[in-house]
Amino acid sequence: MISPPRPLGKTSPPLLRIEPSRGWGSLHLAELWDYRDLIYMLLWRQIQGNYRQMALGPLWIVINPLITMLLYTLIFGVVANLPSDGLPYPIFIYTALLPWNFFSEGASGASRSLVNQQGLISKVYFPRLVVPIVGVLSGLVNFFASMIILIGLMAIFRIAPTARVLTLPLFLLLATATALSVGLWFAALIVRFRDVSTFLGYLLQGWMYATPVVYSIQVIPEQWHFLYRLNPMVGVIEGFRWALLGTKAPPLVALILPVSFVGVSLISGAYYFRHTERNIIDIV
User: Fold this and answer.
1) Lesser CB count within 10 Å: N end or C end of the chain?
2) How far is CA 211 from CA 72, 206, 216, in A?
3) How many Å apart are CA 54 and CA 96, to the nearest integer?
4) Does the keyword Ribosomal protein apply (predicted)?
5) Cα–Cα distance between 31 and 34 in angstroms, integer?
6) Alpha-carbon distance 222 to 212, whole Å?
């Protein structure tokens, strides 16, 4: 049968088919730059949503770390009398809480990001990597706001900054990469198994006590330092205290292995996240 001729001047509209990557293909990281406006929008929306319908609103950004500092100072600095490298315990603990809170909040936010954004994911196409990245970056607002309190504490305790503060972005970058690597693995797992989110909470809580946040690395026996420093957040905390407070610098050799581990974890986590991406809509 001969099909009737199409009217002149009329053509079929182009068909654009969007399919997620299959298998262990390319990460297509260039797409993230193409969707940078979406990253800014989601980031701003998440920051606003964090303190919506709260009486004190954004003031909680500085209230939370201050209350935590006071409680930890009372428990670990006064009662337990843990060593603090010869520094006043309040600024000793606060300097560690800055990067730790950023890491912990970033890892948690990225891990739960797919579930929290399931409405948007099911309606609009965009690189799903955007979601956990926003979950990590949203913590930067709290971090920089809390830095203002740290500057005040340094003035109170008469600790003058030195040129070493210029190295802070490197340690912050390591904390960001660590948070994102954890977030990518757990985001893909939590979509399938929601109770993994509970496990993550316990993991982060235990991780904090395996990191010199409330205590000095001096309490760890020397023979365990090599294994202890495999924890990437040990280098981050030590780096912050060295750059801001003038404590002993973390050995460069001790940073190489954790940085390498974070790099492998981040790349493998991104590939695993991308591999499971095509099933996300069906699961959420």
Assistant:
1) N
2) 15, 9, 9
3) 27
4) no
5) 5
6) 14
Looking at per-residue pLDDT, the higher value among 89 and 18 belongs to 89
Amino acid identity of residue 62, one-letter, is: V
Check residue 45 and give its pLDDT. 85
In 3D space, the residue among 106, 258, 121 whose CA is nearest the CA of residue 191 turns out to be 121
What DSSP character marks residue 54? -
For 177-197, what is the mean pLDDT?
92
Q: What's the CA gap between 278 and 55, in Å, rounded?
A: 41
> Euclidean distance between the first and final Cα of the chain, in Å?
46
Which amino acid, 247? T
CB 42 within 8 A of CB 50: no
Q: Which residues contact 77 (CB under 8 A, 6 or more apart)?
A: 84, 89, 90, 92, 93
**pLDDT tens digit string along 205-220?**
999 999 999 999 999 9
Are 61 and 141 in contact, with CB atoms under 8 Å apart? yes
Q: SS3 of 192, please?
A: helix
Question: What is the reported pTM?
Answer: 0.86
SS3 185: helix
SS3 label, residue 69: helix
User: What residue segments make up the domains of the chain, in order of their start?
Assistant: 30-283
Q: Which candidate, 283, 277, 284, places its Cα nearest to that of 125?
A: 277
Q: DSSP letters of 218-257?
A: GGS-GGGHHHHTTSHHHHHHHHHHHHHH--PPPPHHHHHH
